[in-house]
């Protein structure tokens, strides 16, 4: 299993490749707000653990294993954003809160949160009922 830090890298690399077609060390450093030398170090570790293939002057590609995990990490992040939005968390807090909790939940918890998100998305009246409660408790 990748560590929380490895997960952050795999997630960002997956997003970069998905949106730009490639992930450069400098882009990863910028996305994660870390020094490029830290990226190089981590990328070498991820290469060793077979999440990606890295060649210094040719860039990097995710292996099948890295790609599969990247996809799940992005799914998890998006799901948790939806969850926090449903329970009424202020928009400005959502991204940072997800970054803070996403590595610390079991896949079991993620799946059950997924059920809850589905429950509210399936039926607009459920969402409205919850919103009523949120409005009542907002300033208490
Ligand atoms: Mn994330």
Can you describe this structure?
The protein has helices at residues 4-20, 25-32, 36-48, 64-86, 91-101, 107-122, 124-137; strands at residues 52-55, 59-62. It is mainly alpha-helical. It folds into two domains: 4-68, Arc Repressor Mutant, subunit A (Orthogonal Bundle), CATH 1.10.10; 74-139, Diphtheria Toxin Repressor, domain 2 (Orthogonal Bundle), CATH 1.10.60.10. α1 (4-20) packs across α4 and α4 crosses α6. The termini are far apart. The model has no long low-confidence stretch (mean pLDDT 94). It binds manganese (II) ion. Manganese (II) ion (MN) binds at residues 11, 77, 98-99, 102. Residues 11, 77, 98-99, 102 line the site of manganese (II) ion.
Task: Summarize, please.
The protein is mainly α. The protein has helices at 4-20, 25-32, 36-48, 64-86, 91-101, 107-122, 124-137; strands at residues 52-55, 59-62. The longest helix is centred in the middle third of the chain and has 23 residues, at 64-86.
CATH superfamily of the largest domain: Iron dependent repressor, metal binding and dimerisation domain
The ligands found in this model are: manganese (II) ion
CATH architecture heading of the largest domain: Orthogonal Bundle
What is the total domain count?
2
Function: Central regulator of manganese homeostasis.
Family: Belongs to the DtxR/MntR family.
Pfam families: Fe_dep_repr_C (PF02742), Fe_dep_repress (PF01325)
Subcellular location: Cytoplasm
């Amino acid at each position: 299993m990748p560590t929380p830090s490895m997960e952050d890298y795999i997630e960002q690399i997956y997003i970069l490749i998905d949106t730009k077609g490639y992930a450069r060390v400098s882009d990863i450093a910028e996305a994660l707000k870390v020094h490029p030398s830290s990226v190089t170090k981590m990328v070498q570790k991820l290469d060793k653990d077979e999440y990606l293939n890295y060649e210094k002057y040719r860039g990097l590609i995710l292996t099948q294993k890295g790609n599969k995990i990247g996809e799940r990490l992005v799914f998890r992040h998006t799901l948790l954003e939806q969850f926090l939005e449903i329970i009424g968390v202020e928009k400005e807090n959502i991204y940072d809160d997800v970054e803070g909790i996403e590595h610390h939940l079991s896949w079991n918890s993620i799946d059950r949160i997924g059920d809850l998100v589905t429950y509210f998305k399936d039926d607009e009246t459920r969402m409205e009922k919850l919103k009523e409660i949120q409005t009542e408790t907002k300033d208490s």
